[in-house]
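Take a careful look at the protein record below. Let me know whether the structure tokens fit the sequence:
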Amino acid sequence: MLLQIVETILVSLTGGLLFRLLHLPLPWMLGSLTAVMLWRLAAGRNLLWPVKIRNCGLVILGYLMGSSFTIGTSLQIIKQLPAMLLATSSIILFSLVIGYITSRRTGISLATGIIGSVPGGLTQMVVLSEEIPGTDLTVVTFMQTLRLLSSVFIVPFLVIHGLSGNAQQAIAATMPSVNNTVIQPHWNQLLFAFVAITAAWVAVKTRMPTPFLLGPLLGSAILVLIGFKAPYTPPFFVFISQLSIGAYLGLSINPTSLENWKKLLPYILGGSIAVVFFSLGIGLLLTRLHSLDLISAFLGTAPGGTTEMGLTAVLVGADVSLVTAYQMFRLLFILFIMPILLRWRFKGVAAK
């Protein structure tokens, strides 16, 4: 077991270092993801990456994202709730059209095509597919995996090598903080660490979606909003967060279990890319409606997920709080509204 974990670490570090040397976006996450996935498939190795290590990376990322909240950005979020609803509804409707086209062209069921195309979390959509009659769990997993991979590779590349070329965004993991420090820095670090860990535990107990990310995020945000100064986070912790999340995602992907992947592949990739650029268009519209920069608006609407887009926002110096708010709004909308709509739409499928 220990040797398997060590091998996974070495493979992850190799992939991350290669991506860094090639100046690719999110090198330690995408590099480790790619290296672990390819090494396991090509060499047939039985790698191991405990979920507890991944959870530690999510806690760090949750703190980074939550500590970026300020009173000013919170007021902006409340002001932009109609825009969030507009952006979320538009992207979901566009994804439903993509799912319908995919189902008609490939012969998979409509339920499978829709659930596989909706830009929710990979885990959440796979779990939802088990509750909707007429869905193929394997196909949904494959579609959501490719959608996720397309997003986490294309969106950071566009942001870092395209959109940020004309914007003076600092690629650094610096977090904003409030001016009134309530307690001393030493106790401040202990307080934020305690709250982040406790909030993660509470989120797990209350069955919150992605609890190890959202729990520390909410806990850290509350501390900042009531006046505590967020302590500086060394870049090493950002590196640990990327590596631990990337290695876990790499082990979660298993494309060999699908039989008709060649027929599905072009439609899934084409649909995923179309949704990414549709999100870019929605982001551009948001910059006209509100005083948002294009990078923050795009990352907020992009279909990559809260974890991946939040980490990208941290690294490029975007407005992390707004990016997180838009991503969380879409995630919660999908988790709470979509299951009701899908169950209503496909309630009679199983009987036919």
Summary: The chain has one domain: 2-345.
